[in-house]
Amino acid sequence: LELIEDLGVRVLPNTAGCRTAKEAVATAEMARELFGTPWIKLEVIANDDTLQPELFGLVEAAAALVADGFKVLPYTTEDLSAAEKLAGAGCTVLMHWASPIGSARGLINRDGLKTLRAYFPETTLIIDAGIGAPSQAAEAMELGYDALLLNTAVAKSGDPVKMAQAFALAIEAGRLGFE
Questions:
Q1: H/E stretch holding 116
Q2: Lowest CB count within 10 Å: 3, 16, 26, 155, which one?
């Protein structure tokens, strides 16, 4: 905590690894106490191999946390009904996977992601997993997504700095293409 304070950075706590709504809520409450922020990246995981979200627990936890004053950023699939329930619970940002975490498979359900943008034109939509190449990031931005979270594609590249630059350019190009 001291290092974070010394660096002057903000932390977005995450409930990664939680398997139930109860675990996720407890983790979020501890994170709020520790880091002094109402912001939480909410994950409730159903499957060890794909790290696919457990949608019922995710919606349950999101509703409880929003009611308790949290700003919830839920990690979810491209399932429209789950997105509707999360938005109905008070989530103003939705974070969809393009494909499973770390898979680098890109947009495996392009039509589903496109549908979400159409159904939620005023909601901030973020691609949160599965992007493996700058071209995939550009494609997501061309669909009208507002941002992407990246890790594996940059961290595991031979030259992370160059790869991050490539992603930055692709994201800018994709956004301009959408606009």
A1: helix 110-119
A2: 3
